[in-house]
Amino acid sequence: MRRVPMERPTDHYDARLFKIDEQLCALLEERREISNQNPGFPPFKSIECWADRYRLYPDLLKSLFSLLLNEEVYLPLVEPAGFRKHLHVPRCVESGDKVYTLSGIRQYENASVVNLSIHGDYRERNNEAMRTHTYIELELGDGYHCYIEQGTSNGGNSAYGFVVSPALPDDLAGITFAFREYERPLKRKPTGVEIVFRME
Predict the structure, then answer these.
(1) Which SS3 state, helix, strand or coil, does residue 55 take?
(2) How far apart are CA 199 and CA 176, in angstroms?
């Protein structure tokens, strides 16, 4: 999803904080490297101890560590620009009561947009199952960044558009599209559903 650009909330800045703020940035970099970009979340008991020791609010620290846990959300998003062509790649996979269709790819100069449709018949399912919302993520392997640009759902049908950067090659041979389902955003709690399209 597109982000709204942030405006600086105030013109005031206490210049005496510059060195401290720079040290905070250096510590964040060190933390990311040590954890190999997988920091997890500190136990609440530790957060409460730190809050008490450093005279901070526990909820402030919880919010801070939540932001650090979800750092990938803040990756710069590539906006597709310079449309070149459509790639028609109609492929279907049936799994459970759903049919997953990789319907096509729009090629831009700086990115690709991968379209996935999901069709299911919910008439046989109970009301609780109909209310369950899950999250679909596209994974293409190292070298590609994927994010969902758009999504819509109506009844048993859903459609998604995933932005991939850099742009995929026009010849998709050897590319594997792995769509994985999660109970929560940011790849939390996988449901075990994995739909794979391998291009030959």
Answers:
(1) coil
(2) 6
Q: How far apart are the first and last CA of the chain?
A: 31
Signed CA dihedral, 17, 23, 26, 31: sign only: negative
One-character DSSP codes across 67-99? HHHTGGGGSPPPPP-SEEEEEEEEEEEEETTEE
Whole-number Å distance between alpha carbons of 30 and 72: 16
Task: Sketch the domain layout of the chain as residue ranges.
Answer: 16-74, 83-198
> Are 79 and 147 in contact, with CB atoms under 8 Å apart?
no
| pLDDT tens digits for range 96-105 | 888 999 989 9
Contacts of 78 (CB under 8 A, 6+ apart): 110, 111, 145, 163, 165
pTM of the model: 0.75
Q: What is the tally of helices (H) and strands (E) in the chain?
A: 4, 8
Which of 155, 157, 99 has its CA nearest to residue 130?
A: 155
Complete edge-to-edge strand list for the sheet that includes strand 135-139: 135-139, 176-184, 188-198
The pLDDT tens digits for 7-41 are 899 999 999 999 999 999 999 999 999 998 889 99
CATH topology for 83-198 is Immunoglobulin-like (2.60.40)
Contacts for 28 with CB less than 8 Å, ≥ 6 apart: 68
